[in-house]
Amino acid sequence: MLKNYSRMENQTFNADIISIEGLKVIPQSSTPAFILLLLIYIFIMASNIGLVVLISMETSLHQPMYLLLCNMNINDVFGATVVIPRLLSDLFTPIMQGYTHYIECVVQAFAAHFHAGTSHTVLMIMAFDRYTAICNPLRYAAIMTHRMVVKLSVGAWVAAFISVAILLGLTIRLTRCRRVIFNPFCDNASLFKLSCQDLLINHIYGLGSAVVILGSSLCSIAFTYLRIAIMCFSSKNKALNSKALQTCATHLAVYIIMMVASFTPMIMHRRPEWADSGKVASVMFHVVPPALNPIIYGLQCKELKHKIVSMFHRNKVTNRKSLHK
User: Fold this and answer.
1) What proportion of the chain, given as a percentage, has pLDDT over 90?
2) How far apart are CA 255 and CA 261, in angstroms?
3) I need a surface site. Which of 17, 86, 127, 268 has the fewest CB within 10 A?
4) Rounded distance, CA 319 to CA 300, Å?
5) Between 288-300 and 238-269, two packed helices, what is the crossing angle to 10 degrees?
6) Among 155, 156, 165, which residue's Cα sits nearest to residue 205?
7) pLDDT at 114
8) Contact between 183 and 21 (Cβ < 8 Å)
9) Considering the chain, what percentage of its residues have pLDDT values greater than 70?
10) Range 122-136 average pLDDT
């Protein structure tokens, strides 16, 4: 790898052409890895888009909880599409021989960080919705109106967009003296490491924005679910408490999966000997949560489960009738 790197650096320097190392997959494993990743991507697209279509078509599901869930499904489709198709195309490309234009790399980095930021902000507003529904049920309909749902959804996406726009804006202002990215896809840290300038501002803002987003997400979700747990354990309505705790457990499971997927690559990239594992972990953030979220919500939300079962039942009946004809 070092020989390839030095040979490439000795060539005529073109800062607009970026080399991406990609995943280190031996040639014998390229085809199985491609098939597995492709199947996962198809499942992500089918399950998440399917839930969005189902919620859109069924008027009984036009409730704040499910409308906010659509935000997560759309964001998961977006996040998986940002990373997986490019990985699939690079799996059969030798290491250090994958190239892309700098602008394309910036767009991918922006989209990847935008997906990550939106994941946290969307889960925050979903936690607020559950907190209002369980702790303030008499005012829930007045608070969580369709207009409020739209405002919260737009706010979640806009907050992530502005944060990431500033993050990448600070990076693209830098001049570049390198053109090799040792990651499976483009991200902000990889981009500003291409520069030989002072990166103090980039480090400060990058760390600060991560602390604000992750800290706000962690604190808000911890606070809301702690209040919900206190209210449930102090209430005498066991049936209602069981349903509330089950709903909260679903959201917490999704949040824990996402937090693990967020922090694992950060920790692994701190240790040089874990660098290759860190690359796989960074890809998992765009693969695991988008694949598990529709399963978790589809199985735990009774109304969604009922609608999905009913839809499959109607399709079976329709197919049988068409066969008899």
Assistant:
1) 26
2) 10
3) 17
4) 28
5) 170
6) 165
7) 95
8) yes
9) 75
10) 88
Measured between its terminal Cα atoms, the distance across the chain in Å is 64
What gap in Å lies between CA 81 and CA 21, rounded to an integer? Answer: 19
* Residue 32, token pair as written in the block: 């199985």
Cα 94 to Cα 165: distance, rounded to the nearest angstrom: 32
Handedness of CA 61, 65, 66, 68 (dihedral sign): positive
Residue from 164, 166, 171 nearest 113 by CA = 164
Q: How far apart are CA 192 and CA 121, in angstroms?
A: 25
User: Contact, 259 vs 218, CB < 8 A?
Assistant: yes
User: Which token pair is 133?
Assistant: 């529904």
Q: At 1, is the pLDDT very low, low, confident or very high (cuts 50, 70, 90)?
A: very low
- Has this prediction a pTM greater than 0.90? no
CA distances from 285 to 5, 12, 177, 259 (A): 28, 36, 30, 9
- Rounded Cα distance between 119 and 124, Å, is 9
**Which tokens is 279 given?**
């690359």
Q: How far apart are CA 26 and CA 28, in angstroms?
A: 6
Residue 271 confidence (pLDDT): 56
User: What residue has token string 């066991």?
Assistant: 238
**pLDDT tens for each residue of 174-221:** 888 888 888 888 888 888 888 888 888 988 998 898 889 888 888 888
